[in-house]
């Protein structure tokens, strides 16, 4: 499974956007894009979901039991 940072970076590059252009399109600060792509762990879920919305995805909290059963 890809990490969030790998997923966002690959998808951003696939649509040929710089980090600056991507931040503008998603409506989040450039620092948010950089933190996501650097794999920072202390992120605001709402901001992350604004970014993922560009690709038709969303992060949601899951119970640890659900994760183990998948």
Description:
The protein has one domain: 434 Repressor (Amino-terminal Domain) (Orthogonal Bundle). With 70 residues, it is mainly α. Helix 2 crosses helix 3. The protein has helices spanning 4-14, 19-26, 30-37, 45-53, 64-69. The model has no long low-confidence stretch (mean pLDDT 89). It has five helices and no strands.
Describe the protein's topology.
Layout: H1 4-14, H2 19-26, H3 30-37, H4 45-53, H5 64-69
Q: Could you give me the name of the CATH homologous superfamily?
A: lambda repressor-like DNA-binding domains
- Determine the structural class based on helices, strands and strand pairing: mainly alpha
Question: What is the domain total for the residues?
Answer: 1
Assign the CATH topology: 434 Repressor (Amino-terminal Domain)
Number of helical segments?
A: 5
Beta content: under 5%
- Rg over C-alpha atoms, rounded to the nearest angstrom: 13 Å
Main β sheet profile: none
List descriptors.
70 residues, globular, 0% strand, mainly alpha, 434 Repressor (Amino-terminal Domain)
Q: Summary?
A:
Helix content is about 60%, strand content about 0%. With about 70 residues, the protein is mainly alpha-helical. It starts with a helix and ends with a helix.
